[in-house]
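User: Can you help me understand a structure? I only have the sequence.
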Amino acid sequence: MGLEKFNILAFTGKMKILHLSWIAFFITFVVWFNAAPLLIAIQQELGLSAEQVKTLLILNVALTIPARVTIGMLTDKYGPRLVYSLLLAICSIPCFIFALANTFEQLAIARFLLGFIGAGFVVGIRMVSEWFPANELGTAEGIYGGWGNFGSAAAAFTLPTVAVMFGGEDGWRYAVAITGLMSLLFSVVYYANVTDTPKGATYFRPKKGGAMEVTSKGDFFLLLFMKLPMYLTLALLAWKLLQIGMFTEQSTVTVYFALAALYVLDSWKTYQVNKDIFVKDVPKIERYKFKQVAVLNVLYFSTFGSELAVVSMLPLFFATTFDLGMAEAGMVAASYAFMNLMSRPGGGWISDRFGRKKTLLILTAGLAVGYYAMSQITATWSLPLAIVTAMVCSFFVQAGEGAVFAAVPLIKRRLTGQIAGMTGAYGNVGAVFYLTIYSMVSAQTFFYVIAVTAIFGFVTLLLMEEPSGHIAEVDEDGQVTLINVN
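Assistant: Let's start by predicting it. Here is the structure, written out as tokens:
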């Protein structure tokens, strides 16, 4: 796979896989965020209250945290070709249900289930890692993530126009249904045109299913600790639903107990998968350090988590700070998300050229400074200076995301889907955390909090080791394959 040139304009070999994968990811984000630009029309036709609209937004992300972990496991076991194709096809169903819904309850159920399509990102991370060598992997993963992630912006730009083209009260329904049809049709295209690995290469699968493998006792307990924030975030979402009247106190307490029981069950399953490490040492050639995963989780918490949160609040921030109309504020705020097209691939490219850890240290420091600068924005600033500040901050955020996933596939090949799933889930954990903070403090304090967490990420990053040498994978016949990570 390393002999073929990296030519972004080509559509053969590994470049074909990259293009089809980012398009698949792009479509998942179009579907995932298809309601946001149409909420006013939906609210007016179905007579939804402001609380019900907020509930739909919360439900849209609620399932994505466990979904990314689950999809990561399925990807490692069954391969990205099958899993991505099935995800695109199956998630078109709740998309069609949402388009046909006539009650809030129907909308809520469909929106909750559509959170699953937000896990599509994880699948392509494993697919791209199978096709590109280490010296191109950051660039390839950055293009996959950055161009695919632009699907949310594309939905915001195009779906209102599509709804107007169809016209009438049902215009939004046609717009949503078209995204579902795109997802269903592309599932066939993807399955028919990709393979899990280049010809002759081995697809390494986990030795055991149901939980992530670790290779030392210390890593086992670190894994259990790193699982906790994901469950606590789901509990926080349940509490938010209680606050807006979607849940009763009794149902919220039931969710708390259910999450506690699931964590215990998850911990037991993790022990069952890894119990051998308490009896004998894992052969040195098969070991990996889970602290590498933990560090990347923390960094994605502050990068992608802050991006999701800031994209949600930035239009209102610009509108209130500079007395702009919402349409004008939305266009100004879009400059933050628009940077994804180049920043995320740029972060991956820099990581390929100058090293994973060094790049992450620089970008994380820039992220902290960028958010501190945004905390200083007031009405006394000129609007162009505020926009430039937001765009510079956005570069460090999104380039940091690209650099994180330049390192994810270099830890343990057969676990790449699960590692990507956990790291990706931490991005959603960060978004829920930051948005909860935003609901309680001023915008300036909100940006301060992100800057402080970025500093914490920088300190944590000092514990990371630069990927070097080879990943050793053993196939079912006992044959060892060395995968270069330099």
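Now, to help you interpret it: Residues 23 and 148 are 6 Å apart (CA to CA). The chain has three domains: 1-203, 217-284, 285-486. Let me know which part you'd like to focus on.
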